[in-house]
Design brief:
The protein is of the alpha/beta class. It has helices spanning about 15-25, 35-50, 60-65, 65-85, 100-110, 125-140, 170-180, 220-225, 245-250, 265-270, 280-300, 305-330, and strands spanning about 30, 55-60, 90-100, 115, 145-150, 155, 160, 185, 205, 210, 235, 275-280. The chain starts with 14 loop residues before the first helix and ends in a 6-residue tail after the last helix. The protein binds glyceraldehyde-3-phosphate, 1,3-dihydroxyacetonephosphate and zinc ion (ZN). Glyceraldehyde-3-phosphate binds near residues 32 and 157.
Amino acid sequence: MKKVSYKELGLVNTKKMFAKAVKGGYAIPAFNFNTMEQMQAIVQAAVETKSPVIMQVSKGARKYANPTILRYMAQGAVEYAKELGCKNPQIVLHLDHGDSFETCKSCIDMGFSSVMIDGSSLPFAENIKLTKKVVAYAHKYDVTVEAELGVLAGVEDEVSAAESHYTKPEEVVEFATKTGCDSLAISIGTSHGAYKFKPEQCKRDEKTGLLIPPPLAFGVLKAVEKQLPGFPIVLHGSSSVPQEYVKIINENGGKLPDAVGIPEAQLRKAAKSAVCKINIDSDSRLAMTAAVRQYFAQHPEHFDPRQYLGPAREEMKKLYIHKIVKVLGSNDKL
Ligand code: G3H
Ligand code: 13P
Ligand code: ZN
């Protein structure tokens, strides 16, 4: 594929977007997408709420959908947003959990406006070395770079860790200075997927039987902010795992016992701080799955994908709007 700059595709990087968000006390939504329906729902939600948005693509998404197709979908997203009446769409195409210099370079060369290099599983000095190399390449093309310090429990694409290791606030200044990264993902107790805590880490509500997760480590976040005042901080693993979706899934043939996420009130609190990018993927998967399972239970005779993917797209759009307006506060910022 011919090299192309994201600027020609109508995309933007995260620089101004993050500066505005940190100042304004809100966070930009970073929604993962793998399918056309997710892309459409993200764009519709962003346009209707007048929100900037980060559309992010994981290594797994590139493998599933094909990197070229995803890139054109993001370009299509900009045009679609304009068609829906948005004069100045603020859409970032971001690589989520880039695992090597080569993957980041390939994305930059094909029109991504932002990349993450996830060296969080490497020793500190190696994480710095790798991140610095990606930053040097990315900045030549005005592409912004997210790095990560600290380890999230669970699966980080193909890297998995049994336990989380909170970011050490005493390391962040050296890391940010030496790498030149534009934003930093930190570990304060979030994790990927629909099972963010084990039942033994939670309390259980006596009436509903639902798990009540432990609070995030806001002390660590505060200490990081103190070290790096105004620096853009990113939270991964920030799905809330809405229990209404879990219930619909379980009542319609699914099996997600004790699925639990991060309470939205805690994300709202984080969004008001230097956290200016909040990553949400699992909640969209749950919305889609709940809608499809319910649809099939109610219409066993249907088999046209448009019949069940249409309601799934609507449900995802509802979820994205809810996150933007009620959790992140990024609405009316265009
Ligand atoms: O970081 C995890 C994201 O939810 C992406 O997940 O690697 O299964 O596409 P994935
Ligand atoms: P969730 O699994 O909590 O949605 O996190 C997504 C994420 O961090 C993508 O990088
Ligand atoms: Zn992540």
